[in-house]
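User: Please predict the structure of the protein below. I'd like the answer in structure-token form so I can feed it into my own downstream comparison script.

Assistant: Understood. Taking the following sequence of 380 residues as input:
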Amino acid sequence: MERAIAHMDLDTFFVSCERLKNSVLEKQPVIIGGGDRGVVASCSYEVRKFGVRSAMPIKMALRLCPEAKVIKGDMEYYSNMSHLVTEVIQEKVPVLEKASIDEFYLDLSGMDQFFGCFQWTNEIADAVQKNTGLPISFALSTNKTVSKIGTCESKPTGRLEVRAPHIQNFLNPLSIKKIPMVGTETFNLFSRLGVKTIQTLSEMPVEVLHQLIGKNGTVLWKKAHGIDDTPVVPYSERKSISTEDTFSEDTIDVHQIRSILSGMVEKLAYQLRQEKWLTSTVTVKIRYSNFDTETKQCKVPYTSADHTLLRAVLELFHKVYTRRMRIRLIGIRFTGLVHGSHQMDLFEDTEELISLYQTMDRIKNRFGTSSVGRASGFLK
């Protein structure tokens, strides 16, 4: 049975959310970000034509498009809208993967015998727009790679089907940058070799690609031929990362516990960023010396930032720790995970803070997770 995989992407999601609140912003140049010293988290198509892109310093973006309106992002609002879209889609498809806060993969394989897959995907997109007011683009094909590329090519608010016999003709004229796994470094490498289109890449021997970039060369060769067997992984809020610490001696030293929680949060947040996750739910657990166990959780805007998560964790700890009794164990769990960029949640942060996170992560990558961190996390 031929697979039918749809990729859906909410168009300029943050901007579209703001336009729902304020219709005056329709067709206006809009930048979502964190003020003059922040970065662009999202921007409208009206701004992009001036060369403005995500992750660009806002000062630079305003030099390129001085008339753009800068709006401070509201991640809690965007998170709620993302959950609403997810609920609408989940009701209508057998298998849904939430790839990020604003994009989804749908496995509709086998549904042609009941209902045309393209017509069905159209109706899902219509339902999203009707129930949420958000514009959405999609492409339908036989695998995730082709459908994702198709969505990018169909934007804004495009709807495209790429059937199996037409996949290679669809891919051939496109830049190799359109392949999801091709970053700037890989693109520059192949550009120096004169390889800029997917057709040229597909005509290269797979052995040559393997020599150039290792095992990823084989994967890239397959993608250039429209081959991708990656499954659609069902979305589940149960995905989580967590850590616990059982004390060698029960303690009532709140200062020490706060320090330990700080170190725990920093390590888990680093793991989130390395695996490209954002979390939307924080849970704190404590176990008293008599083995009574209590937990408390809260929703947060999708994030992977240490300081945001630490604030939530410490607030939860002081809410859950209600007895003047020694503590035997503390634990933290992050759930409601979706794939996404660390920069999406940094609306209040400066370029310097973003740079600090990136630098600390590079140090941890090279020297280990305990090589650098907040001073509060080392106070044991």
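That's the full token string. The chain has a mean pLDDT of 88.
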